[in-house]
Amino acid sequence: MHMADALLSPAVGTTLWATTAVAGGYAAKKLKVQLDDKMIPLMGVLGAFIFAAQMINFTIPGTGSSGHLAGGMILAIILGPYAAFLVMASVLTVQALFFADGGLLALGCNIWNLGFYACFLIYPFIYKPWVGNSNQRGRILAASMISVILALQLGAFSVVLETLLSGNSDLPFGAFTLLMQPIHLAIGLVEGIVTAGVISYVQNARPELLESMAPSRLPGATLSLRRVLITFAALAVFAGGVLSLLASTNPDGLEWSIAKVTGNGELRDTEKGIARALKTIQQKTAFLPDYGFKRGKNYQEKPEPPPSWPNVGTGTSVSGLVGAAAVLGIIVLIGVSIRSCRGKDAQP
Amino acid sequence: MTFDARYFDIGRLDRLSYGGSFVHRLDPRAKVIATILFLFTVVSFPKYEVAALAPFFLFPALLLTVGAIPVRFLLRKILIVSPFAFFIGIFNPLLDTQTAVVLFGFAVSAGWLSFLAILLKFALTVSAALLLIATTSFPGICHALRRLGVPALFVSQLLFLYRYLFVLMEEAMRIIRAREMRSFGSHGAGMKMFVRLIGILFLRTVDRAERIYYAMLSRGFQGDIPTLKQSHIALSDLLFLSAMIASLGVFRFFPVAEKLGRVVQELF
Questions:
Q1: How many Å apart are CA A31 and CA A37, to the nearest integer?
Q2: Nearest CB to B101 within list A44, A90, A317
Q3: How many CA atoms lie less than 13 Å away from A76 in the CB half-sphere?
Q4: Which of A37, A172, A319 sits opposite B262 (nearest CB)?
Q5: Which residues of B, range 162-201, sit inside 8 Å of A by Cβ?
Q6: Which candidate from A53, A99, A253 shows the least CB-CB separation from B81?
Q7: For A105, which residue in chain B has the nearest alpha carbon?
Q8: pLDDT value at position A65?
Q9: What is the pLDDT of residue A306?
């Protein structure tokens, strides 16, 4: 469920980057207090472990297909929520860069979807109180199953929200949710079994490695009411912020929404940074007469339906099409000529 | 993708990043900033905008050719990760059937336009990220991030992860090979064996982390990874960045493709 850049709008991408940065900053601050130096290499190497483990495929029973691990919950159980969140973030960053699994703008979304719920909600509120220090296999299995499934469901649901709010997809909310949730239920079942298996294995072989077992590490589960409230307040702000964006990016396209926003200026004030700057510039240019409808002389006069979106005119689109082809041709030409100038020895 | 293919891919990108072209020599900070600006500009286009995206292919094309990155390798990587965007986008033509344009007698629905826009944006954003890593060494990017204000703890995470990625992948490969040699066909590929393999890999990882930690202590580790390599923003970096910003601005706010199309149409 790696989000792709292409499905995002700048507003949603920036919002999720900001919330993820806040969560990451909070985790880093917490870790600074309770971290011994030993944890730093352990965290880094475990990130590499998750990476390597993701590449080992296993056969999913009964289906013949194969799957792999995601690993957020395993990390949380072993390292505790704060360290796990940072490790997950670093794993996703490297994946985005090397495998293009989820783009760089979407990285905020992906860290949030795959890391936040597992580390900051499910682990401290469900897994940890449930399992504690117990080493009963049944309990670990049940708790891991439920935790992984819940975390994945929340993550998948976030993917739905982020995509819909970005407004690039026409999938209706209901259909998209029905598409995403059951698939991730199946993935969650498998990952839950694997998580439980690995945790039991570690529990038997090296119990001192688990976060809940190590006395030197501060427990993450002594949750005060205050922390719970802060978490939910943050979630509410997130939901509110995102839902307020819904009003502006859905479904009639950017230009229309900007026209509306210029009518009543307050709606977009929550947005900041580059997205806002871009929008304001866009707002100025979107109504330039050049940008609009101009008919090529060869094309039939066709009355434009003014109120409906998209109002892409024939004249504009044909010249756009021809122009795009010309531009691409020029680009290829530039590429080929540079390449031939470099000579054959430049080829690796 | 099989394990070997993925391992090969990540190794190849790593090797490519140590090339010596003009793009490789640019300061990592300049490249990181330029990439982020590029991504934002591409993503900021409205849903149905297709032609205006074409000029943006200039950037990957230039980086690719100047940096001598193999085209086919890049295209294959883009193709491999495309399914998610493809399957979410493919519903647009089915759901948004309103006619947007009539081109040469064919009615093109708005859904096809937005689907095409998604695919183009996808190709652009993915190639930008891959080209950034293929022309900049990963430690270079980490140091750039550090100097752009990302917390030290996170950056050292990235550096450790990267450093031990190859080590652990080789470990994982040894485990897989051992399993394959002892099993015939798909025996031993089930869930139970998988859990044990991961467990073993985990324990080996932890043992390794311990050894690494002691080795680091004996070399004076104090919680931060210092860098000896100094990077300076040179004139060429500033020129690159300003050229980038200027052209992004022009491509974003001036309908280049459309204008050119008019010129071409006038000609014929």
A1: 11
A2: A317
A3: 31
A4: A319
A5: 162-165, 167-169, 171-172, 175-176, 186, 189-199, 201
A6: A99
A7: B39
A8: 54
A9: 42
Question: Letter for the amino acid at A9?
Answer: S
Q: Does A41 sit within 8 Å of B212, measured CB to CB?
A: yes
Asked if pLDDT for residue A64 goes beyond 60, the answer is no
With 0-12 CB in 10 A as exposed, 13-18 as middle and 19+ as buried, what is A177?
A: middle
What's the mean pLDDT when you consider all of chain B? 84
SS3 content of chain A, % helix, strand, coil (to 5): 70, 0, 30
Inter-chain CB proximity B189 and A58 less than 8 Å:
yes
User: Which residues have CB under 8 Å from A335's CB, separation 6+?
Assistant: B61, B62, B64, B65
Task: Give the mutation candidate from B58, B126, B268 for the A interface (greatest A CB count, under 10 A).
Answer: B126
Considering only CB atoms, B261 lies closest to which of A44, A61, A320, namely A320
pLDDT, one tens digit per residue, over B104-117 is: 667 778 888 889 89
Q: CA B230, B231, B237: angle at the middle one, nearest 5?
A: 170
For chain B, where are the alpha helices, taking DSSP H only? 3-16, 22-25, 28-43, 58-66, 71-80, 83-89, 91-95, 110-135, 138-147, 152-182, 191-218, 235-253, 256-267
3-state secondary structure of A196: helix
Would you call B100 and A310 a contact, using CB atoms and an 8 Å cutoff? yes
B66 CB neighbours in chain A (<8 A) are 338
User: Per-residue pLDDT averaged across A315-320, rounded?
Assistant: 68
Answer yes or no: do B191 and A334 touch at CB < 8 A: no
Name the one residue in this structure whose structure tokens are 């020895």.
A345
Tokens of A235: 């979630």
Q: Is B62 in contact with A209 (Cβ distance < 8 A)?
A: no
Which residues does A294 contact at the CB level (< 8 Å), separation at least 6?
A313, A315, A316
Please report residues of A whose CB lies closer than 8 A to that of B174: none
Higher pLDDT, B262 or A311: B262
Residue B241 has pLDDT above 50, yes or no: yes
Q: Are A86 and B153 in contact (CB under 8 A)?
A: yes
What value does the mean pLDDT take over residues A113-133? 88
Cβ within 8 Å, pair B10-A310: no
For CA atoms B12, B14, B16, B18, give the dihedral sign. negative
Query: In this complex, do B43 and A8 lie within 8 Å of one another by their Cβ atoms?
Result: yes
CB-CB neighbors (< 8 A) of B197 in chain A: 56
Task: Give CA separation, B172 vs A3, A49, A199, B175, B179, in Å.
Answer: 27, 9, 19, 5, 11
pTM: 0.78
Tokens 């849903």 map to which residue? B47
A-B Cβ pairs (cutoff 8 Å, strict): 384
Q: Do B48 and A87 touch (CB under 8 A)?
A: no
Is A56 within 8 Å of B172 (Cβ atoms)? yes
* Neighbour count for residue A338 (Cβ, 10 Å): 16
- Contact criterion met (CB below 8 Å) for B257 and A320: yes
pLDDT value, residue B124: 93
Query: Whole-number mean pLDDT of chain A?
Result: 72
